[in-house]
C-alpha cells in the first residue's frame, strides 16, 4: 500500500478507525501528524482520527516547561498539556525526549509531579515511554 504521507509504497501501518483506509510508514507517522500508541494493542491513528486532549485554551505567553520556548495558544499535535494540573504546557518533541530519558518508572509531569494520570495521557497521545 502507498503511504498517505510520503506517497511511497510499502506502508504497513493502517489507521485503526473503522472505515479509514489510510496507511503510512512508522517513520512518516510524526511528519503526517499520526499517533501510534506504544502500549496494549499498539494502535495507530491518522491525523484525522488521532486522539485529542480535552483542554481549554492556554493562557497567553505560555512557555514550554522543558525548552522554555513559547507554545501555541491551544492544544495541537505539537503542543501538549498535563491532564492533572492543566498548567504545564510543552512541545511534543520536548516531552518525548524527557520520556526517553526518564523511563516508565520516573516519568512524571515537570510541574505538578503527577505520575499516573500524566503517564496514561502521554501514552494515549502517542508518547513512547521505555520500560527501563
Automatic annotation (TrEMBL):
<keyword id="KW-0436">Ligase</keyword>
<keyword id="KW-0862">Zinc</keyword>
<dbReference type="InterPro" id="IPR011011">
    <property type="entry name" value="Znf_FYVE_PHD"/>
</dbReference>
<dbReference type="InterPro" id="IPR001965">
    <property type="entry name" value="Znf_PHD"/>
</dbReference>
<dbReference type="GO" id="GO:0008270">
    <property type="term" value="F:zinc ion binding"/>
</dbReference>
<dbReference type="InterPro" id="IPR034732">
    <property type="entry name" value="EPHD"/>
</dbReference>
<dbReference type="InterPro" id="IPR051188">
    <property type="entry name" value="PHD-type_Zinc_Finger"/>
</dbReference>
<protein>
    <submittedName>
        <fullName>G2E3 ligase</fullName>
    </submittedName>
</protein>
<keyword id="KW-0863">Zinc-finger</keyword>
<dbReference type="InterPro" id="IPR013083">
    <property type="entry name" value="Znf_RING/FYVE/PHD"/>
</dbReference>
<feature type="domain" description="PHD-type">
    <location>
        <begin position="1"/>
        <end position="50"/>
    </location>
</feature>
<keyword id="KW-0479">Metal-binding</keyword>
<dbReference type="GO" id="GO:0016874">
    <property type="term" value="F:ligase activity"/>
</dbReference>
<dbReference type="InterPro" id="IPR019786">
    <property type="entry name" value="Zinc_finger_PHD-type_CS"/>
</dbReference>
<dbReference type="GO" id="GO:0005634">
    <property type="term" value="C:nucleus"/>
</dbReference>
<dbReference type="Pfam" id="PF13771">
    <property type="entry name" value="zf-HC5HC2H"/>
</dbReference>
